[in-house]
Structure formats: structure tokens, C-alpha cells
Specification:
The chain is built from three helices and no strands. The chain has 101 residues and is mostly helical.
């Protein structure tokens, strides 16, 4: 049967073991997260901070164990700092006295 156009040379792995390659890979997600984290310090920190955390977490393959890529770790740490600063800034602008007290 393998000789009539149904060979196994093109796709040696079974369909169950292959994965979709349509999304961005881990390195790209780490770089995107790091860029979002750095940009979040200047504009829209409350939005770009969590985006950086999610991108970094997905780039680290959703685990803390094993080898961690540097851009992914930078994205998670800076994204957390960015989000925390944005929350503090928002809480400071809602107090009476315009954040003086």
C-alpha cells in the first residue's frame, strides 16, 4: 500500500503527536512580552503590564522549572512591576487631595 501514493516518508509522525505551528513560538512571545513591559513604563501600563506577564509566562512554557529564556523572564518581572506601579498610580489619583495624603 505504501507504494501507491500513500507513503510515510513525507509525514513520519502520526497526526496525534504533531502540533499546530500557526501561532508565535516561545522566543517571539518572550520578545513581544519584553517590548510590552518596557513600553508599559511610558504608556498604558495597566494594559501592557498584564500583557507582558501573559506573554512571558507563555514563553516560559507555563512553568517555573527548567531553563528560562531571558526575554521571557524579563517580560514577567517588568510586567509585574509595571502593573503594580500602574495600580498604585491609579489608587493615588482617586484619593482626596489629588494624591497628597
Amino acid at each position: 500500500m505504501a507504494g501507491f501514493g500513500h507513503g510515510t516518508r513525507r509525514h513520519p509522525r502520526s497526526r496525534g503527536r504533531t502540533w499546530s505551528r500557526t501561532g508565535p513560538d516561545r522566543a517571539t512571545l518572550g520578545i513581544i512580552g519584553a517590548v510590552c513591559a518596557v513600553a508599559g513604563f511610558f504608556v498604558l501600563g495597566i494594559i501592557l503590564g498584564p500583557v507582558a506577564i501573559v506573554c512571558g509566562w507563555l514563553a516560559m512554557n507555563r512553568t517555573w522549572s527548567g531553563a528560562r529564556p531571558v526575554p521571557a523572564l524579563i517580560a514577567v518581572v517588568l510586567g509585574a512591576i509595571d502593573t503594580l506601579l500602574a495600580i498604585i498610580w491609579l489608587a493615588g489619583t482617586t484619593t482626596p487631595g489629588n494624591g497628597l495624603f
